[in-house]
Write a structure and sequence with these properties.
six-stranded antiparallel β-sheet, Thiol Ester Dehydrase, Chain A, alpha+beta
Length: 159
Amino acid sequence: MDKLEITYRGVIYPWQCDHMGHMNVMWYTGKFDEASWYLLGRAGLTTTYLHSRKCALAAVQQNITYRRELRAGDIITIRSGVLEIQDKSVQMFHEMRKDETQVVAAFTFVTGVYMDTQKRKSSPIPLEIREKIKGLQLNQNALYWEDTLTPGSKADSIG
């Protein structure tokens, strides 16, 4: 994949904000989670698929970097892609931007492990799913998220 794919669009509601008037950290996690499931669903890891095979994907690590505050009424878009696929795990990247300015508000790296829900153990991702996930894998030689990761980047100065 040559660029990040839109996996979530939404608005920040007043009840998602903390006592300082910013979106509370719990909502960043939730919105990134929704983006993860959208991306994984594109690879065939839907609720129907997971339940029918008695398997799941469990998040085992998530690192979020907060760049700019979001407030009630802000409209956001999350773009995502797969960084790495291994036998039993997948690592995803998500960036959240405020639509009005295109400034990056936050980004995250999430690692999920495929597991057998009856044995409660990790298990290999089925080959047909792994191949679909590879189709969502980002080209590591093209740093299209460079402006996300670089402090003082062009994306930070827009608007």
